[in-house]
């Protein structure tokens, strides 16, 4: 059995050709040409004109001649070829470049994700953006941690709560590990979103105002866990253990869906009692 590896240069060339050939000049408002078209879709010179790139460069890219286009060139090609978000990400991945993020991070959850969080009951669940801002939660998560709706928007942030809120500061038995993993996530998000001034400001605030955060941030740990367990010491239900899973919606990859599940029958019983009281 032969295993074929991806030749990124040739795949980039083929991808650009197929996307160019799938477009029609009428769709882009280009003037009609009298002479018959030998190939379907746009001509290379039309893509070059739309992208502001030389025809020779387009030719060399489509022939797979070993070029590594810059992020600016890729962005221009993505616009010219009307690439969908997933296609744009694929183009940047083939060229080993990082796409620039221009969209502002979500500060509200899409209605479908809000419904999903609710439908996950009786499992505690909540949705966060890459800054750890809490966008949606169900009643069970409010019972386990606290009712985020009673907090001002500036405090609806999982890292802020873990560092600053007296109840959340005491609820995790292995609090330093929880904080360490949260900081690892924030560091990765900070590197991936250098344009997010709100995230930079949040980290600056933590660095200046919280010695624990500053100490752990300086370790530059980026090993964030998307699966594991947390032992909680709840003021009403006592101590119990929850497995957690962090999922990323395909349509909203900068958001995180956190789901808790009881780790054993004792924890399940404690969670059921807690939610019944809530």
From TrEMBL:
InterPro entries, alphabetized: Cro/C1-type_HTH (IPR001387), Lambda_DNA-bd_dom_sf (IPR010982), MLTR_LBD (IPR041413)
Superkingdom in the source lineage: Bacteria
SUPFAM superfamilies in UniProt: lambda repressor-like DNA-binding domains
Domain HTH cro/C1-type positions: 34-88
Name under which the protein is recorded: Helix-turn-helix transcriptional regulator
Organism: Streptomyces axinellae
């Amino acid at each position: 059995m032969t295993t074929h590896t991806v030749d990124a240069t040739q795949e980039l060339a083929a991808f650009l050709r197929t996307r160019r050939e799938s477009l029609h000049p009428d769709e882009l408002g280009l003037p009609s040409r009298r002479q018959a078209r030998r190939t379907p879709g746009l001509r290379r010179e039309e893509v070059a004109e739309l992208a502001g790139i030389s025809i020779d460069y387009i030719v060399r890219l489509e022939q797979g001649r070993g070029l590594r286009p810059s992020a600016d060139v890729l962005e221009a090609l993505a616009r010219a070829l009307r690439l969908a978000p997933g296609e744009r990400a694929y183009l940047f991945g083939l060229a080993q470049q990082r796409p620039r993020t221009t969209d502002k991070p979500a500060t509200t959850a899409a209605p479908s994700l809000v419904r999903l969080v609710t439908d996950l009951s009786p499992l505690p669940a909540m949705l966060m953006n890459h800054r750890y801002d809490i966008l949606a939660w169900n009643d069970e998560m409010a019972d386990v941690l606290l009712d985020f709706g009673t907090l001002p928007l500036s405090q609806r942030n999982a890292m802020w709560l873990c560092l600053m809120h007296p109840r959340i500061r005491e609820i995790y038995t292995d609090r330093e590990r929880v904080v360490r993993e949260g900081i690892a996530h924030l560091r990765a998000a900070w590197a991936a979103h250098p344009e997010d001034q709100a995230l930079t400001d949040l980290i600056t605030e933590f660095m200046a105002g919280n010695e624990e955060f500053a100490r752990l941030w300086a370790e530059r740990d980026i090993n964030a866990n998307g699966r594991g367990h947390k032992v909680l010491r709840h003021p009403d239900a006592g101590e119990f253990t929850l497995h957690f899973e962090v999922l990323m919606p395909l349509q909203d990859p900068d958001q995180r869906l956190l789901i808790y599940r009881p780790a054993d029958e004792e924890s399940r019983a404690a969670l059921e009692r807690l939610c019944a009281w809530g």
